[in-house]
Amino acid sequence: MKYFSSLKLKLIYVFRINDAAHEGCLKIGEATCDDENVIGLAPNSKPLNEAARKRINQYTQTAGIRYDLLHTELTLYNRGGLRSFNDKEVHAVLERSGVKRKVFDKENKANEWFITTLDVVKRAIAAVKEGKDSLSPGEVAHGRSSIVFRPEQCEAIEKTEKQFRKGNQMLWNAKMRFGKTLSALQVVKDMDFKRTLILTHRPVVDSGWFEDFGKIFYDRNNFAYGSKNNGESHESLERRAKADGLHYVYFVSMQDLRGSELVGGNFDKNNEVFATPWDLIIVDEAHEGTQTELGKAVMAELVKDDTK
User: What global pTM score does this model have?
Assistant: First the structure.
């Protein structure tokens, strides 16, 4: 009697279609490989390319679509033992890094097309293998240049940095469209704060802070952003901060923190956030949500002796 393994090797593939609709987009998918000889199956090797083309042809050949296969590699890797990853993990890293999906059909948004480059996809694959949730802004930036601040913004940045050299508090009473987010992040960059917390009563502005983080820190790979929806998790950021000196900015909502048991809420959560020795806490729209008893309890728990 012969026995055959039911386990098939998996591989990631990346391809593009050269037409106007797919310009600037790449598809990241997954396929199985019939070749069971792991040794010798290097990235872009003939067996992997053949397996990828076999899979891609299943949904392109009948439509007469011509494509370019750009990259293939096994999903097996070694990091303290043999592990594997899948295409969904690569997609997640891309999305948490701010790379957008390309939506061709509004009825079906769960597609594998992304507006990105092959280099960025390769970095996302490497990030998955390294246990990272996202890429740094510099790894996804495309020809970005420094922000040119207006005179009033420069004044606010300079006054704040001067104040922080002798004290721990600074209040900005700035009008709408002043550019508080970009200016505040420039202070973080200039003063090289290791752990910065952004606290807001408006969780929807997370995407705005994340986007502006990329504009300021596009040239600094030793800084990372995190929140529940963008960038890395707090656990991952703190692990990297302790392991290799990473500096990070973490976004959290006042509503979420107020629900924590530690400050009188009903849920056992956010203990690690409260325990973090924050160098700087940026309270966005400070007049909202910080004057209640729970809000004051949150601030009292977050602020340490040296926190600015």
Answer: 0.80
Q: How far is CA 96 from CA 101, 125, 164, in A?
A: 11, 13, 32
| Domain map (residue ranges) of the chain | 9-135, 151-302
Domain boundaries 151-302, corresponding CATH code: 3.40.50.300
Segment (H or E) for 180: helix 180-191
101 closest CA partner among 116, 86, 88, 87: 116
Placement of tokens 């970095």 in the chain: 123
Question: Which parts of the chain sit beneath pLDDT 50?
Answer: 1-6
Q: For 104-233, list the strands marked E by DSSP.
A: 113-115, 195-200, 223-226
Buried b (16+ CB within 10 A) or exposed e, 260-273: bebbebeeeebeeb
- Which residue pairs from 161-169 have beta carbons closer than 8 angstroms and sit at least 24 positions apart in sequence? 161/187, 161/190, 161/191, 164/191, 164/308, 168/306, 168/307, 168/308, 169/308
Q: What is the pLDDT of residues 243-275, one digit of tens each?
A: 989 999 999 999 999 999 898 888 899 999 999
Residue 43 contacts residue 69 (beta carbons within 8 Å): no
Can you give the length of the chain in residues? 308
pLDDT at position 52: 94
CB-CB contact of 90 with 133 (8 Å):
no
